[in-house]
C-alpha cells in the first residue's frame, strides 16, 4: 500500500491489528503525552486519539513505535531502497546480478520529485490555534510540533517564483506554536541546531539581507517524516530519498506567489495533512523553549529564529501525527534503528577502515559513540599502541552530526573475538579489560558539542574524549567490590554497575574526591587493578540498577575535559594520563538543565483512567 496521507497509514495499521483507538476525551496538554509514553514503554501499537479536548483534529502517535512496525510501514519499498544503496556502493553489481536489481528503474523514477500546482493539503485553511496544541512536559514553554517536515529554500532571486526543488532542504526541527514572545497565530518558533541544512539558507539570506521562505508540513507518507531526519550525503536530496521509500514521486506544489505578494514562497508537500507557510527574517531572533528533549532533560530558553506565518492549510480528512520525546528510549529511538539498518552498509565506503558506528540511544545519542575500526598500519611490526584507530576516530568526528559526539570509544575489529557494537555491557567490558590509561585517552578541548547538552562550559561548547582500544587483555575485572577496598566516610553506598565499574556517592568536590580515593587505590594496587572506572553520582542505587541507567547518567552529566580525572594522573608532553582507575564526575551540577519529571496530577489522573474498570484499562 502506498500511503498518501496519515489517514491511509491509520487505516492500514488498523486493518492489520497495529492500532488502538482511544475515544476518551483527553487533553493535548500533558495527558495525551503521558499515555503515549506508557504505550511505548509497553511496546504497544500506534494510538489514535479520536477526541482530543479543544482540538478540531484527531491525533495519532507511536506510528514508529517499534522497528518491526517501521518495517511494516515500508514493507513494499524497504528492500528496493536497500538494493538501490547496494548499487550506489557498487554499480557493477547490476552487471553481475541483473535479476536482483529489476526494480532499479522504477525506484529511480520514484526518486524524482514531481512539480504540481495544487494538492489536497491546500483544500482548507485554518489558524495556528486550530492545530492540536501538544504539550509533553510540565515546564515546556508552550505547545510544539514534534514531527514537523521543515522545508526551507534560498532567499528569492527576484523572479517571484518558488525555487528549484533541488535547492531546497528538508529537515526536522522542533516548532513552537505558542508561548514566549510570539504573536499568537502570526509567529512561531523555529529551533534548528548545529549541522542542519537549513543553516545554509539562513547564511545566504544574511548575505542577501533578505528573508528566506519556509514551509512546515505534518503528515502525508511516513517516508517524508523519515527523510526529514535522515543523515544523507550532500549529493542526495531528502525529497529524492523520500520518493524511493514511499514508492512514488513526491508531489510538490511549486507556483508563483499570490497576486501582489512580495514574499518568497517555498514549495509545499502536496500530500501532507497540514501545511504552514511563511518566511524567516535572518536578522531576528526570539526566545524559544523550554522543551523536554531527547536527552532526558529540558532544553532551556535560548534565542532562535522564528517564522512569520503567511498561511495554514489542511486536508479535509486530516489527522495530526505526533511523537513525544524524553529520556530514551522513546518512539524516536526507532528512527535511529531504521537509519542504521538502511545506511549501515555505506559506512565503510564513507569512512575507510571503519566497520560500524553506533550512536548510543540510551545515553542520549550524541553524548556517546561506539565504533569498530581496523588497524592496518604496519601490521608487520605488530605495533603496541593504537594507530589507525585514532585516525579513523578523527574521521568519524568529521562527519556531520557525528561531530557533535562527546565520548567516542573505538575498538579493533581485526580481533575475531571483538564484541558487537550493540551489546553495550560486552563492549565496555572489552574496553575496561584492555584500556591503557597511560596512552589511550585523547582529549579535544574548547570545541563544539550538541546544542541540547548542558554538561559543557557554555551553550554548544564542551570537550570530547577519544578512546581507541587495541591489543590483548590487560586486567581481570572485579565482579564484586573487594571487601578490603575501603572508602572513608566522605563516600557512601558504593555499587558495582558492571564488571570493573563502580558508582559511589559523595558531596566532595571532584579534586578532593580524587585525592581521597587515591589512598586506598595506592594501598591495594592489586585490588584496584580490577576496577577501571569510578563514577561519582548523586544516586548510586539508580545508576547501578541497569546498564542503561549508568550510561545515561555517566555520559549526559559529564564534560570530559572538566569532569574526568584519574588516580595517579600526570601530563607528559601535553598528553594527560593516569595509572588508573578513571574517575568521572557524573553528578548534576548547577549549570545543568533539570531532568524531565511527569506532572504528579496528570500521572494520578491517567492512573485512575487506566485502573481496572476505567476507560483506558484495556490500553494501559
Largest sheet: 9 strands, antiparallel
Rg, Å, rounded: 26 Å
Distance between the termini: 30 Å
- What percent of residues are in strands? 15-25%
Structural class: alpha+beta
Instruction: Indicate the overall shape.
Output: globular
- The tally of helices reads 19
Mean pLDDT reading? 90
Helix % is 25-40%
**Unreliable spans:** none
Which keywords apply here?
nine-stranded antiparallel β-sheet; alpha+beta; globular; five-stranded mixed β-sheet; UbiD C-terminal domain-like; single chain; 32 strands; 620 residues
TL;DR?
This protein is an alpha+beta fold and 620 residues long.
Can you offer a commentary on this structure?
The protein is α+β, with helices and mostly antiparallel strands and 620 residues long. Among the domains are: 6-73 and 111-321, no CATH class; 333-469, UbiD C-terminal domain-like (3-Layer(aba) Sandwich). It is 26% helix and 22% strand. It has 19 helices and 32 strands. Strands 5, 6, 7, 8, 9, 10, 11, 14 and 19 form a 9-stranded antiparallel sheet that branches. The protein has a 5-stranded mixed sheet with strand order 21-22-23-25-24. It has a 5-stranded mixed sheet with strand order 26-27-28-32-29, with helices on both faces. The chain is globular. The mean pLDDT is 90.
